[in-house]
Amino acid sequence: MGMRTNIELDDELLAEAAQYTATRSKKGLVQEALSLYVATKREERRRMTYRERLQRVRAKTGGLRAHSDAHELVRRDRDTR
């Protein structure tokens, strides 16, 4: 069930947006745009939390270095799969 809302839309922006979708109704176009907006923001948030975790791990392991032998072991293991 949806919330009924009256909004004033920019006709030129609406016409341009309609060129990029198969949806032909204004309601469908607005729903598609909102869905895309939410998905984009959700992905941005997911990437940000990943980036923050990665920075913490890098800060903790920044001084650690793998020996060249370790790189060779990883390479061999990967090649056997």
Task: Write up what this structure looks like.
This protein is mostly helical. The protein has one domain. It has helices at 11-18, 26-61, 68-79. The protein is elongated and about 65 Å long. The termini are far apart.
Which properties best describe this structure?
single chain; 81 residues; mainly alpha; elongated
Helices and strands, with pairings:
Blueprint: H1 11-18, H2 26-61, H3 68-79
Q: What's the gist of this structure?
A:
With 81 residues, the chain is an all-alpha fold. The protein has helices at residues 11-18, 26-61, 68-79. The protein has one domain.
Helix and strand content put the structural class at mainly alpha
Which geometry do the CA atoms define? elongated
- Strand segment tally: 0
What Rg is obtained from the alpha carbons, in whole angstroms?
24 Å
The span between the termini is 51 Å
Tell me the major beta sheet: none
